[in-house]
Amino acid sequence: MITGSLKNKINSIWQDFYNENMAQTAEIVNQLTTLMFIKMLDDKQNAIEAQAAVLGIEPQESELTFLKGDYKYKEFINGKEQIVFTIPYKELRWKNFKNLNGMDLADRIKNYVIPFIKDPNNKSVGKFGEYAKKYTFGFDDKERLLTSVVDKLSDEELNFTNTDLMGDVYEYMCGSGVSGQFRTPRHIIDMAVEMMKPRIGEKIIDPAMGTAGFIVEAAKYIQVHQQDELMNVENKKIFNDEMFYGCDNDTNMSRIGYMNCILHNIKNPQITMDSLLEHENAKEYMEKFDIVLQNPPFSGSLVEEATNAKLLAITKTKKTELLFVALMLSLMKVGGRGMSIVPDGVLFGGDKAHMSLRKELIDNQKLIGVVSMPDGLFSAPTKKGSASKGANVKTSFLIFEKTNKCRTDYVWFYDMKNDGYTLDAKRTPVAGSDIPDIIDRYNDLEKEMTRKRTEQSFMIPVEEIRKNGYDLTIKRYQKYERIKMKYRETKDIMAEIKVSVDLSKCLMEKIKECL
Length: 515
Known about the structure:
There is one protein chain. By secondary structure, this protein is of the alpha/beta class. The chain has helices spanning 4-19, 25-55, 94-97, 102-118, 128-131, 143-153, 165-174, 186-196, 213-225, 233-241, 251-263, 309-314, 320-331, 345-348, 352-364, 435-442, 445-448, 462-467, 490-514, and strands at residues 70-77, 80-88, 204-206, 244-247, 270-272, 289-294, 332-343, 366-372, 395-401, 410-415, 457-461. It is 42% helix and 14% strand. It is built from 19 helices and eleven strands. The chain has a nine-stranded mixed β-sheet with strand order 5-4-3-6-7-9-8-10-11, with helices on both faces.
């Protein structure tokens, strides 16, 4: 979350673009995130080298982006591969070119660094070039702007090591809520991953990935909890090449998501820019995944002719918030598990499409739980910091398992009241977050069977849900304890009023005497 001095620094960079008559948001984001990625590569290597120095060892070459010696950029010219230029790797590092004068800086980045990160043979950046095909250097004849932006990005506070700062900056620059797309807060992603407990060898996908937050946090969870297993060469290869998948049909978001994965040590994430809702784009993905995590667009729509027929068989609708849940089921293996953020309309909508989706989850699969999140959790700042249109969407997390048989017996409900931040546009940290409690209770659902409906979480038998028209809103089943209040006797209140009136009259008389 961008706040305080960091917010002011991003505002200052943004203003630099405006001052040079670059006012198109998409173009600013395109240029700025690419420069951020270039810096991130160097930040990451600096951290690796510093850690190796403390241990008194040489860093592993496989972990490095910038090697010793020279980098040779090759292209096919007249059908023959030829070396276009040669440059020492160290000259491609941010720390070694950030202080060049404007002309030399523009030349270094445009003619050497950009080809380096777009090079399909450059294994250290994986397939980044595929997601940057449309990128062109935007600082021709704007060397003063480039120098200013590079100087400001070099600020120590903008160190991108082991953070999702790029996603935070992207959210702040663009604002949120555009076309119903809200970036998922990091602590909510962490909660989902903690509940799903991914393991090495499990295939994980986010079909609406944005900046790839779910994918990155799932990878970080494994790196922390299965550190020893990742020492195994085969496990490491599986982790790098076979586990993490994502989709976003926005070119910029795909590129940023891919950058995020690479910078969080996922060497070869499988990212597609084809919408998995459409036609048969998901054909190779069907029934392949152990875990699906997503926060799909809330207000999108898709024409029936373009929609995958398998999804329409589950819920015949144009609404993307319904189609994405149907897509999750289609992507999951039997036994696969998933969590999806949905607008609360999905939980109670009474039309045929809403009902058929909820019946599918309850009657044909295993609906495990519904976590109701507070209003304001998705209040998102625009690039100027004000609350954006579409904020305060009421949302919930659906948790389910694919069984292809009716396995729902009880559904767990939790009423999240505090996510650890204020629910205004500022989103200031506060004590008393419910998230640790949510994770603990989810991990012991047997104990939840004994809780009363007046508590913050409880279990509801599936038959009751069916009788209530498959309504999954927590308020339908919640009960409230009425506290017996003992009020004062009326005669005592009247006596007190009389004393007050008499005193007022006395004071008025004294005022008259004074006058």
